[in-house]
Amino acid sequence: MSSTPHDPFYSSPFGPFYRRHTPYMVQPEYRIYEMNKRLQSRTEDSDNLWWDAFATEFFEDDATLTLSFCLEDGPKRYTIGRTLIPRYFSTVFEGGVTDLYYILKHSKESYHNSSITVDCDQCAMVTQHGKPMFTKVCTEGRLILEFTFDDLMRIKTWHFTIRQYRELVPRSILAMHAQDPQVLDQLSKNITRMGLTNFTLNYLRLCVILEPMQELMSRHKTYNLSPRDCLKTCLFQKWQRMVAPPAEPARQPTTKRRKRKNSTSSTSNSGAGNTANSTGSKKKAPAANLSLSSQVPGLGAIPNCSLNPGRDGDLCHSTAVTPSGQFKEKH
Fold this sequence. Notes:
Layout: H1 27-40, H2 48-58, E1 59-71, E2 74-80, H3 85-94, E3 97-105, E4 108-111, E5 115-129, E6 135-148, E7 155-168, H4 171-176, H5 181-187, H6 198-210, H7 214-223, H8 227-243, H9 263-268, H10 270-288, H11 292-295, E8 300-305, E9 316-321, E10 327-330
Parallel strand pairs: 1-7
Antiparallel strand pairs: 1-2, 3-5, 4-5, 5-6, 6-7, 8-9, 9-10
Helix pairs in contact: 2-3, 3-6, 7-8
Protein name: LIM domain-binding protein 2 isoform X5
Pfam families: LIM_bind
Organism: Delphinapterus leucas (Beluga whale)
């Protein structure tokens, strides 16, 4: 069977430079593989600069990370922004974790204009704990990732919904402490809650307070203002946005059409119209020139309105002109 240009193994007769590019299907999962390798290269001396570089490599500047799970007191959902993501991963290791990696099985990918969405219903977050005891925790759930469709292919949204978790203790440790009931009782207790350590849970609760304060922190860092001044300016700007009226769309001016007069009627009634116009102008002329001075001889009134109330609380008052030419205010 001859190969066609639609065949992925098709080779162009013009040479290797005209071959079809390698499909881009494995790139999103490969980015998770690279992230796992970067997490494995972490050392005990990794500081905040290392975690910032890690987040910059794999997350967009406006990325968000969301965790959804259910605890004893009900369902929880935490969403943190890009500035808090490095600290989230560092708290995982501060809680006694020595290794962290993600396993994606049977993930589905959908391509859009500017992003790639990966939906994995069988995702496992595996953490290896060295303290308080040697335990392997497998946290299973659904992971939905949105990557930017560019050369960097960084994560824009991360949403991990935890369904269940398992804590695995080696049999060798159980055999070593088989005769010690206190150690066995300690081994039977969970060291995590829904696969998350207490360090991570406390940090997520703290992020509920820290996330709204990101605007204050950014303003303080940019303009070097005091915390009180940052709060005042932020509140004032929010108040301005609330009271500002919505922008109305520009209205197109409506054009009025003039009615055409009948030429025959206009010619026949031209003489009558001229006489009517002359009489009408004579009648309208006194009305146009009508003023208070014509009714009251020797007195002219000019209305004058002001925003400042008068003596009796009125906003409008008049200025009268006496026959001698002096002005006299009347309220």
